Amino acid sequence: MDSKTKQMILSALCKHFSVDPVGLGGSGESDVKTLYSNVVKASGKEVSSQNNDEVLKWMEYAEGLSKDCFAALEKLNVELAVKSVVLGDGLTPSAADVAVFAALHASVIGLSDSDKEKIPHVIRWMNYIQIKEELTTLFGPISVKLPQFDFEVSKSVVKVDSKKTAESPKPLDKSEAQPSTKKTEPEEPKKKAAKEKDAKKEKKKPAEAAPAAASKETELSVSLLNIQVGLIRKAWKHPSADSLLVEEIDVGEGKVRQVVSGLAKFCSPDDLTNRLVALITNVKPGKLRDVMSEGLVLCASNEDHSVVEPLLPPAGAKPGERVSFSGVEGKAEEVLNPKKKQLEKITPHLYTDESGVATYKGIPFMTSAGPCTSTIPKATIK
C-alpha cells in the first residue's frame, strides 16, 4: 500500500473519531494497524477487546488491498449483500468501514462502468459511508453510470378469420322463414328492432369504458407522487410513542420539514442524522400522536417486516431534487387525496430488485447522481 492511501486512511479515521491528525506522525512508515491504534489512543475512547480484534482484522484486509483488487471487491460485494456495513451495529459504521472505504476509494472510481455494475452492494455501501461519515470533502464522489432502460408497450392484436367473415349466412328453410301463425307476424319486426338496439348498446359499452380505464391507469402512475431527496438534519424519539421517531428533513425549501416515521424499532436517531432519504412531500400533512408530520419517508422492508430501513439516495444527490422514473412522465398532485387512496394503489408497484435498487414496476428511482438503493434485495417499499 502506498503512502498516499495510508494518508487517506489516517485522515478518514481522524474524521471518524473526531481527532486532530496533527501530532500523530506521518503515515509513510506506519502500518494501518498502528495508524488505527494511534488514532484510538488520541481519541481517548475505550474500545472493547473483541471489537478491537475485529477492527484490526479489517485493517489488515485494507492494507492487503492493491490497486488491481477486483477479485477482492467481488468477495466484498457478496458479503455486503446481506448487511449494511462491513462491521458495526445495524446501520452504524465502524472504524473498519472507514478504513476499508479509504483503501478502496481510488480503485473503485477507476473502474469501468461495466465493472461497477458488477459490484452494486459495494457501490451502495461506499455511497452510504461517504454520506454517513461526511467524507465528501476528503474523497471525490463515486459515480455509477447505469445502463439505459428501453420500454416497449405491446399491443394486443385481434385476428379475424376473413374466410368465415366472408361466408354468407346459411339460408333459412321455408318452414323457418315462414311464421307459424298470423299472430306472430307483427311481433317479428319489433323483436328484430329490439335486438338491434341491444346490440348497439353492447357495442357502445367498450368505447365508453375506454376513457374510464385510461383515467384509472393515470391515477395509478407513480408520477402523482412528489418524491424528493431529503437530508435529515436532526432526529429524536417521539415524546409519546415508543415506535415513532421525529425528523427534521431538508428538501431545499429554505426551511426543514418535520416528519414522523415508524422507525424507532429499526433505527436510532443517530443512525438517521445527516442521512439522505427519499421523501414523499405531497402527502396531506397531519398529526401522528399529537406531533405534526409533513411527509413520508420511503422505506424498504423484508417479507416478515423484521428488517426495515429508509431508501438511500446516492452520494451527490441534492436535497430537494425530484426522483424520476425513465419513461414515466406526469405532474405530481399538489396534495394527495386520502379518499382516493392514490398512495395505497401505487405502493404495491414499489420494490427493490435483486441488487437492492429501488424501482417502480422495475424502473429505477433515479437522481442526478444515480439510483436510490437499499441493503434489502427484493423488498417491499412503502
UniProtKB/TrEMBL annotation:
Gene3D superfamilies: 1.20.1050.10, Nucleic acid-binding proteins
Organism: Brassica campestris
GO molecular-function term, one example from the UniProt record: tRNA binding
Keywords for the protein's UniProt record, in alphabetical order: Cytoplasm, Protein biosynthesis, RNA-binding, tRNA-binding
GO BP term (any one): translation
Coiled-coil zones: none
Protein name: tRNA-binding domain-containing protein
Subcellular location(s) per record: Cytoplasm
GO cellular component, one term: protein-containing complex
Annotated region described as Disordered, given as residue ranges: 162-215
Residue ranges occupied by any TRNA-binding domain in the UniProt entry: 221-324
Keyword Transcription regulation in record: no
Biased composition (Basic and acidic residues): 162-207
